[in-house]
Amino acid sequence: MLRPARRRAETPALALLVAGCFFMENLDSTIVTTAVPSIARDLAVTPASVGITITAYVMTVAVLIPVSGWLADRFGSRRILLVAIALFTLASIACALSPTLPVLVAARILQGVGGAMMVPVGRMTVLRVTRKEDVIRAVALLTWPALVAPILAPFLGGLITTSASWHWIFLLNVPLGIVGFAVALRVVPAPGASADAEHVPTPPDWVGLSLTSAGIASLVWATTLLTMPPIDVGQTVAFGVAGLILLSVAVGYLLRAERPFVDLRLLWIETYGTALGGGGLYRFVISAIPFVLPLLFQGAFGWTPVEAGSAVLFLFAGNLAIKPTTTPLLRRFGFRRLLVASHLLGVACLAAMAFFRPETPFGLMVAVLVVSGAARSVGFTAYNTITYADVEPRDMTGANVLDSTVQQIAIGSGIALGAVAISAGLALTSGAGAAPVLAYDFAFAVIAVVLLAALVPAWRLAPTAGDSLTRSRG
Question: Of 128, 130, 359, 466, which cross-links 335 as Cys (Cβ 3.0–4.6 Å)?
Answer without folding.
Answer: 466
